[in-house]
Amino acid sequence: MRREFDPAAIRTSITSRATLIAYGWTDKKIHTAVRRRDIRRLHHGWYISHSLWEELFWEQQHLAHVMAVVDDALEPGPVAAMESAAVVHRLPLFHHLPARVHVICLPGAMASSTRDVLRHVVPLEYTDIVDIDGIRCTSLARTVVDVARTCSFETAVACADAALRQVAVSADDPWAYDVDAAERLRHEMHMILDRLPGVHGARRARWVIDFADGRAQSSGESVSRLRIVQIGISVRDIQVRIEGPDGSFYVADIDAEHWWVEFDGMAKYVDDELRGEASADAVVVAEKKREDWIRARTDRMTVRLADEHIGTVADCIARLAEYGIRPPRRRPVPDPGPPAA
Predict the structure, then answer these.
(1) Distance (Å, rounded) from C-alpha 100 to C-alpha 125?
(2) Distance between CA atoms of 340 and 314, rounded to whole angstroms?
(3) Which domain does 199 fall in, by range?
């Protein structure tokens, strides 16, 4: 089962060829270990345990690749950008594992790309560059702008939502949302786009930035909201509180006109840390009681979406049809682009 690791633990697990040779390995032994899947080659001359690689989420697999490229470079090294900066900022990519590490080299630097590193030569303001755990990368705002310009809508929305959540929600109180902090980051993103006139993907980036909402609690919720809008159904609000029994409250993920949408991630059932002391069966029963209560209080049904229902727009339309919901004839305005293939 995949799980999240401390980035420091990942970095210490990455080994160079030089280190292996110093410990008595030979090139033949390294090649044999790669072939037997004992270790995995991340970058030319850099390796990681294959068993650890298999446990990492997509984002952290790419983070390991970024770390290997950064450790292989001469100081001060390139600046990680786009998806590669996103994983350094611990932003989600929604099931997207980039094949190459994206880096920005300042004008005048050697900028030839390789099989696993794509080097871009673009101007950067000094405010666009930050250092996170020894890795130079684009700032949070610049990273979201670049991802929104160049990646799929699914990755862009999941990344933008998570970035707003990162600045607006504290771990001490996950239900408190700092609107001012979120809007400051949104404004910074728009300012970055304003100083990149004519840049590829600017129109879609503005749509993503305006659509982003840091109250979304997972990339699955983010993409579910995107799919609903792509189908042409209005999203009126998200994370809506509904009065529960004994002064408590329940939260509906998405208010979609005349029904609620709940993204049903499997983690709540299979992840021991999320379940706490409750069994998977107990979680299922609690979810059923919660859904029955919300329907009784609001007279609106709950549509449950899971990963298999949000892969494409067609998948989501098919799922809604199971609930007797048909998409409207007209596309939404502004149009976020064609449905995913």
Answers:
(1) 24
(2) 8
(3) 59-211
Q: Are 226 and 267 in contact (CB under 8 A)?
A: no
Distance CA 239, CA 225 (A): 11
Give the pLDDT of residue 269. 43
Residues 279 and 309 in one domain: yes
Which two three-digit tokens encode residue 71?
């450790």
Query: Per DSSP, what are the bridge partners of residue 303?
Result: 261
Say which residue, 258 or 66, is predicted with more confidence: 66
The CA distances from residue 332 to 223, 229, 329, in Å, are 16, 7, 10
From CA 190, how far away is CA 238, in angstroms rounded? 23
Residues 201 and 242 in one domain: no
| Alpha-carbon dihedral sign for residues 165, 167, 170, 175 | negative
Regarding whether 302 and 281 lie in a shared domain, the answer is: yes
- How does residue 285 score in pLDDT terms, banded at 50, 70 and 90? low
Residue 275 structure tokens: 């379940």
Instruction: Provide the pLDDT confidence category of residue 199 given band limits of 50, 70 and 90.
Output: confident
How many domains does the structure of the chain reveal?
A: 2
DSSP string for 72-84 = HSPTT--EE-HHH
